Amino acid sequence: MAGSVPMNTAKASVSRNQTTRSAGAVKWILIGTALLVLLWLIVLPLAVVITEALKKGWGVYVEAIRDPDALSALRLTLLVALITVPLNTIFGVAAAWAITKFRFRGKQLLVTLIDLPFAVSPVIGGLIYVLVYGAHGWFGPWLQAHDIKIIFALPGIILATMFVTFPFVARELIPLMEDQGQQEEEAAVTLGARGFRVFWKVTLPNIKWGLLYGIILCNARAMGEFGAVSVVSGHIRGETNTLPLHVEILYNEYQFSASFAAASLLLLLALVTLLLKGWFTRKSSH
């Protein structure tokens, strides 16, 4: 019996070593698979964009970037993001604050409506605005009578972009604010703070990194949106073409170098967004 204890210990040690080796093998298999998938789906396409953009030389690349239509598409893309992101930020903060801090009828309906753009195709979202504000839509005759352009103009592009991007800030803040609870706000109210003072002094400092993270995601989607904007823009060169639409038009016209050059601008914007996202993630984790 005395000799069986060391034997059992040895068996247990061997079993642990086998388990460790097996776990290590599984770990490296998973890491290798993930790296291969990332290489195939992300790194390789990005490399193709850069290679094709510079295929005919730096001069052709710069000329494509400096083309008036490309610059107009870039300005429109940035303008739409500059308008939609602050509006969706205000909505997202207000919705998250109401959902997590108050009790009211229709709360679950509000949450469902916030998630609606995740379930609806962006093309359908754009079509909805055409059916409402188009020439033959519900408000089309009235808008025409008052010379107000929404579809095939900047307002329609903004509305379509807002539709596909408005969940991002709210969806980032709702779980964060639910986890934080209401103790600090209740303490502030007990000390005499009211309304927006509680928000500015207590709630906002606690959610600032999550809020910035949601803004970054919203901005990335706003600049890269294609489906909904394609339906409502009209594809008017130099007027209603955003950068993604400009890339598609150039590619369909077999101007491949110019198309990939314009796509590289979107890639640059995406990389900046990715860097900011990583920085905010590190800050929020501290």
TrEMBL record:
InterPro entries tied to this protein: CysW_permease (IPR011866), MetI-like (IPR000515), MetI-like_sf (IPR035906), Sulph_transpt2 (IPR005667)
Record-linked SUPFAM superfamilies: MetI-like
GO cellular component, one term: plasma membrane
GO MF term set: ABC-type sulfate transporter activity
Keywords, comma-separated and alphabetical: Cell inner membrane, Cell membrane, Membrane, Sulfate transport, Transmembrane, Transmembrane helix, Transport
Membrane association type: Multi-pass membrane protein
Listed transmembrane segments: 28-50, 70-97, 109-130, 150-170, 211-236, 256-276
Pfam families for this protein: BPD_transp_1
Domain of life: Bacteria
Location in or out of the cell: Cell inner membrane
Matching Gene3D superfamilies: MetI-like
Domain ABC transmembrane type-1: 74-277
Oligomeric form and interacting partners: The complex is composed of two ATP-binding proteins (CysA), two transmembrane proteins (CysT and CysW) and a solute-binding protein (CysP).
PANTHER family associated with the record: SULFATE TRANSPORT SYSTEM PERMEASE PROTEIN, SULFATE TRANSPORT SYSTEM PERMEASE PROTEIN CYSW
Function: Part of the ABC transporter complex CysAWTP (TC 3.A.1.6.1) involved in sulfate/thiosulfate import. Probably responsible for the translocation of the substrate across the membrane.
Protein name, as recorded: Sulfate transport system permease protein CysW
